[in-house]
């Protein structure tokens, strides 16, 4: 009898999380059920539509956060789930991304795009924020002690939020759809090579950043 050559089992094909009929399923079931049971969702988001959700975001989202140490979802996370349920049109998504008056609206729709959009579209929409230095407040999962004080938030910036979404497998405790590194998409001809922006060094020192009201904090 001929010897049977053992072959290693083939690796299972990657299942893209974005290919779902209901976008709300992009959030894990336990977290999704906690959001649906939260008082904030029931009071402000249960009947919200594409237009009425914007005042909710601008009035109640004052920081970026997932769930706290006891599992309570933040307003940011609640609004994210409602956006996934509504699946707003591309025109609304691009308008909310491009507006500069409310940074947490932009941050929320950046997360929405990262969860739902194609790799090419995600890079095209999120990379311009690598030169946006507005401040963001990030909620910590667990409070940290600093000089004897309990700190529940940390300071970040829009450019750091953009970098995190494009390079990390998780954000706010949620698993993000897999996205290839930019150089792989360039080699495949999906994206054009990115040109160096020599003005970034000036902006990093606080120079070259517009002083218009568009860059004023909407949370402080």
TrEMBL record:
Q: What is its main location?
A: nucleus
| Record organism | [Candida] anglica
Name this protein carries in UniProt? Pre-mRNA-splicing factor 38
Name the coiled-coil region(s).
none
Known PANTHER family for this protein? Answer: PRE-MRNA-SPLICING FACTOR 38A-RELATED (PTHR23142)
Give the family from UniProt.
Answer: Belongs to the PRP38 family.
Q: What does this protein do?
A: Required for pre-mRNA splicing.
Mind listing the UniProt keywords for this protein, alphabetically?
mRNA processing, mRNA splicing, Nucleus, Spliceosome
Annotated stretches, region: Disordered: 197-220
Location of this chain's protein in the cell:
Nucleus
